[in-house]
């Protein structure tokens, strides 16, 4: 099959086209989410890292380092200013979604944490863990309710 110079990105009715390949993780990727308004992809991995990939040309990813175990899930608040992550290290972390990558560590689970999600306005988080608990966290106070 010959490539033609007038190739365009695929539409929903056409064949899919690869627009960009994002590389950086050193182990299996556990979650990948797309933040529509920021045109950003956020990924987590068994390597303990989180990347926030801008989809603009030549954009460099923000790298979030701090978990001591595999990152099992990530979520982004509705405004896109915060990223929440959970890990096998039993912590819930809230990161500033910018190059500073500052984070707050919230402890409350006694076993690996599997999932995290913001509520609709971003004021609360819910996490689930192998300790058989679901916890609701206050994002501003950095503790569970």
Layout of SSEs?
Blueprint: E1 29-35, E2 40-45, E3 50-54, E4 62-64, E5 71-76, E6 82-87, E7 91-96, E8 103-107, E9 113-118, E10 124-129, E11 134-138, E12 143-144
Antiparallel strand pairs: 1-2, 2-3, 3-4, 5-6, 6-7, 7-8, 9-10, 10-11, 11-12
Shape: globular
What's the gyration radius in Å?
17 Å
- In the CATH hierarchy, the architecture is 7 Propeller
Assign the CATH superfamily: YVTN repeat-like/Quinoprotein amine dehydrogenase
Helix share bin:
under 10%
Number of domains: 1
**Assembly status:** single chain
SSE run: EEEEEEEEEEEE
Average pLDDT figure: 87
Provide the β-strand percentage band.
Answer: 35-45%
How far the N terminus sits from the C terminus, by CA atoms, comes to 59 Å
Poorly predicted regions are: 1-14
Structural class: mainly beta
Instruction: Walk across the major sheet and give the strand order.
Output: 1-2-3-4
**CATH fold assignment:** Methylamine Dehydrogenase, Chain H
Question: What is this entry, summarized?
Answer:
The chain has 145 residues and is mostly beta strands. 0% of the residues lie in helices and 43% in strands.
How would you describe what is shown here?
The chain has 145 residues and is an all-beta fold. It has one domain: YVTN repeat-like/Quinoprotein amine dehydrogenase (Methylamine Dehydrogenase, Chain H), CATH 2.130.10. The protein is 0% helix and 43% strand. The protein is built from no helices and twelve strands. The protein has strands at 29-35, 40-45, 50-54, 62-64, 71-76, 82-87, 91-96, 103-107, 113-118, 124-129, 134-138, 143-144. The strands form three sheets. A four-stranded antiparallel beta sheet has the order 1-2-3-4, with no helix packed on it. A four-stranded antiparallel beta sheet has the order 5-6-7-8, with no helix packed on it. Strand 2 (40-45) and strand 3 form a beta hairpin. The model is unreliable at 1-14 (pLDDT under 50).
